[in-house]
Amino acid sequence: MPQDNLIKLQCTICKHINYHSTRNKKKLKNKIELKKYCRWDKKHTLHKEVK
Question: What's the mean pLDDT when you consider all of the chain?
Answer without folding.
Answer: 91
